[in-house]
Amino acid sequence: MPDPSRPTYTAEEAAEILKRALKQQSLKEQGLTHDELVEMAAEVGIDRGALEAATADVTEARASELARQSEARELGEERGRLLNRFVSSLLVYILVNTLLYVIDRQFSHGTWFYWVLVGWGVGLAFQLRAVFSPRASLESRRRHELRRAAKLDRRASRQARHQRIAQVFGGHAPPHVAHAAQARNEFEAAVQTGVAALLQAAARKIHDHAERAPIDGAGHRRRR
User: Structure pTM?
Assistant: First the structure.
């Protein structure tokens, strides 16, 4: 029989007391491990399956919160980049169109500058829209970074494969690679030899032609 002199608590009150006690303990310590949490739950009669389910819910909620915070941070950074780009474009827009206005008023009496003003302004409007909705730009940036990372991974894989081949063959290339390199070198040597032979033949033709040319009265060979 419960002692009437000692206070009793409802389930909600007991849960709140335990929660506050754990909070106070977490302020003094680094936290609880999962095994310690299981042990404490067993002491107060909490089923292990219920504890695992609650732990999974908390872990999922924490992961969702971290993902949301990371998404919000990346969106803020992307909005900042887009805003800086828009401000730079706006300054260039003002300076260039001011110059075009002066030129148009000076030489054409203001007949065409507004076309540039309106056309360029439409582009600026799209940039301003992207500042307020940066998600599309962020997704595009992510796709670009993924493609770049995949390209770097392929390049690293090729380099690692070449290094492994060099190690396997003791620093020498495989037979088919060596044969291809030898064939390429032989082809380049043949091309160089052929070019040299053509130049020599052309030089002989020029020399023979000069020898057969008749000599005029001044002692010079006349051109035919």
Answer: 0.50
